[in-house]
């Protein structure tokens, strides 16, 4: 048996190497023909890919802003919905309750007032809303609830009202609970931070602040008014028609006024929603512009790409034929 001829083996190895290179070039040409973009970024940028890197960096930043915009829009919408739910909780019963009080229909007034506890609970639940794992109304303390549970707050208020003997004193006690900076709601009812949640950065130098805390005066006044109505049917003053009417009247008129203030809060959030939408649209437009610039930089001529693909396809066929022939010759030499 003779060893294969060295020149034949050398030629075979070169042919196989050329076959692999040609196949790789053909695959690249096929990708470029299909996408219309060059795959060799250095070549496409004329040997200086800095411009391409700048475009990619800008697109990455805009993608991050897009995510931030989506999250901000979701939080703002959830905030808007929760505020509306809290406003509706008291707004539904206030007109009927006040009307019944004004005409002296105590039975009807009590019937409407009995809805106040459920409304208070619904408002508290709305203000404890979370979005994407973050508390919406707790300021910078996004991990915990904004408010203590409704039962705890109403029990605390009832204890304060129990020490009063008339409607006027009861109103003063309820007001102190919600507005005394040294105790009551400010310390035990509101559980969030005294600082707002950070504003959302949605574009370079553009931040949108739409934080609403549950210790906002408008929200406190709404909760105070609901709690006042609750005390009119659940405290010891419920048997005193005069004191009860005082609590009902104050609670109902307070709810109507608080509704206007909550509407103003919702309008502020609505303006923030519009600002978020405007910035998101601006980012989309800039992203489109940069993507077009990147495509222009990497674009290949379709005719050139098709011609190159056909040439490489023919070259691959030729190299394959030569390689097969050399492999056959080497095998003959080996067996000879």
Give the key terms:
336 residues, mainly alpha, 12 helices, disordered N terminus
- β-strand amount: under 5%
**Average pLDDT number:** 83
- Poorly predicted runs: 1-6
The count of helical stretches stands at: 12
Largest sheet: 2 strands, antiparallel
User: What percentage of residues falls in helices of 4 or more residues?
Assistant: over 70%
Order of helices and strands: HHHHHHEEHHHEEHHH
Based on Cα principal axes, name the global outline.
Answer: elongated
Describe the protein's architecture and organization.
With 336 residues, the chain is mainly alpha-helical. It is built from twelve helices and four strands. It has helices spanning 6-35, 41-44, 50-91, 94-102, 106-113, 116-127, 150-161, 167-179, 185-189, 217-234, 241-298, 302-335, and strands spanning 130-131, 134-135, 200-203, 206-208. A two-stranded antiparallel ribbon has the order 1-2. A two-stranded antiparallel ribbon has the order 3-4. Strand 1 and strand 2 (134-135) form a beta hairpin. Helix 3 packs antiparallel against helix 11 (241-298). The longest helix has 58 residues, at 241-298.
């Amino acid at each position: 048996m003779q060893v294969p001829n060295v020149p034949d083996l050398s030629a075979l190895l070169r042919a196989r190497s050329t076959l692999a290179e040609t196949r790789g070039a053909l695959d690249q040409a096929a990708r470029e023909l299909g996408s219309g973009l060059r795959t060799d970024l250095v070549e496409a940028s004329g040997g200086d890919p800095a411009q391409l890197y700048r475009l990619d960096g800008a697109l990455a930043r805009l993608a991050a802003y897009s995510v931030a915009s989506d999250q901000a829009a979701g939080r703002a919408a959830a905030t808007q919905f929760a505020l509306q739910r809290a406003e509706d909780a008291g707004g539904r019963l206030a007109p009927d309750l006040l009307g019944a009080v004004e005409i002296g229909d105590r039975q009807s007034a009590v019937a409407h007032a009995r809805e106040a506890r459920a409304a208070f609970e619904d408002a508290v639940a709305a203000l404890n809303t979370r979005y994407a794992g973050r508390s919406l109304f707790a300021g910078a303390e996004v991990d915990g609830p904004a408010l203590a549970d409704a039962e705890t707050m109403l029990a605390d208020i009832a204890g304060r009202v129990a020490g009063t003997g008339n409607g006027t004193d009861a109103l003063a006690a309820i007001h102190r609970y919600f507005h005394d900076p040294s105790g009551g709601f400010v310390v035990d009812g509101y559980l969030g931070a005294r600082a707002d949640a950070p504003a959302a950065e949605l574009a370079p130098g553009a931040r949108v602040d739409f934080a609403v805390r549950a210790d906002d005066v408008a929200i406190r006044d709404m909760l105070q008014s609901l709690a006042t109505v609750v005390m009119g049917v659940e405290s010891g003053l419920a048997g005193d028609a005069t004191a009860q009417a005082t609590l009902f009247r104050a609670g109902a008129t307070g709810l109507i006024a608080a509704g206007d203030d909550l509407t103003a809060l919702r309008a502020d959030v609505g303006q923030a929603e519009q600002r978020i939408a405007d910035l998101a649209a601006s980012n989309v437009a800039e992203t489109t512009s940069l993507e077009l610039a990147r495509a222009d930089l990497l674009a290949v001529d379709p005719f050139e790409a098709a011609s190159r693909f056909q040439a490489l396809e023919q070259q691959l066929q030729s190299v394959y034929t030569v390689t097969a022939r050399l492999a056959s010759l080497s095998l003959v030499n080996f067996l000879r």
